[in-house]
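Section 3.1: Structural characterization of target chains.
Under the original work plan, the team committed to producing a structural model for every single-chain target entering the pipeline before any wet-lab resources were allocated. The record below documents one such target. The sequence was received from the expression subgroup and is listed exactly as submitted; it comprises 264 residues.
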Amino acid sequence: MYDFTYHRPSSLDDAAVAIKGAGDGTFLAGGQTLLPILKLRLANPSDVVDLGSIAELKGITVDGDTVTIGAMTPHAEVAGSADVCAKIPALADLAESIGDLQVRNRGTIGGSIANNDPAADYPAAVVGLGATVHTNARTIAADDFFTGLLETALNDGEIITAVSFPVPDKAAYQKFGNPASRYAIVGVMLSSGSAGVRVAITGAGPCVFRQGDMERALAGSFSADAVAGVTVSADGLNSDIHASAKYRAHLVGVMAKRAVAACA
């Protein structure tokens, strides 16, 4: 690692002050991406602001038909939450599928979506469930939050505080995971509720995206047969040592059909 100044604020306001005063600062959430990057000397921040001691960024609350998860809530807590399991079991299933036990106990929802790795699971949950991202400055709709490869709508110094998920009528998450890392080679979060049908794809492209053709097909007939009739183009999809773009396009259809079946 390179040398940096370490900050551990106890409040959101103190964190905002620390990052504002840094020459080239970065936030530390669960550290599942940042720490390996620092160890490999792929980043050289002047300051690291650790959000781990800010109590207001942690916890899960339910208000009517909305489940709100604090940005520093670890995946394991989401997976094991009785409230999440009761209201949005697909979200608990998704959290349980992330990485291994150590990753699930350290990684956080805020860190995951702020990093926006193209193979991460939580971006699919945010978009597929039509969530709202809360920061210390504003609220951002799911469809506006993820903007590209490792890019989001967050401004410099902006801190994610929580993510609010509307409770759907039905939802499911299915993924074809890398057997070593459990990252999604292709993952599909599918939901149906008062706002209609949403189908979000992660792992297949440079950034999470909605599959409009599948959404329209499922709005007409919520069945695996409806999804089977949708042709998924390989144009613009990822192609690497794990899977070609053509194979990923095929997997989108397979995982979507499995998600529809899981909703039943």
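DSSP finds twelve helices and 14 strands in the chain.
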